[in-house]
Amino acid sequence: MGRDTGMNTAEYAMGTIAACAFAAVLYKVVTSGTVASALRSTIERALDAPF
Hints:
Elements: H1 9-30, H2 33-48
């Protein structure tokens, strides 16, 4: 029997599609108004923190 190491072309295609879909969902979540506002608030609090 041959060794089954790595991914073949079909697995690369499915992996690439899954990675792109995950990136698209993550982008939509991060750029939504609620998340953007929370990130902005957190960064502002961090910059205004006393040292």
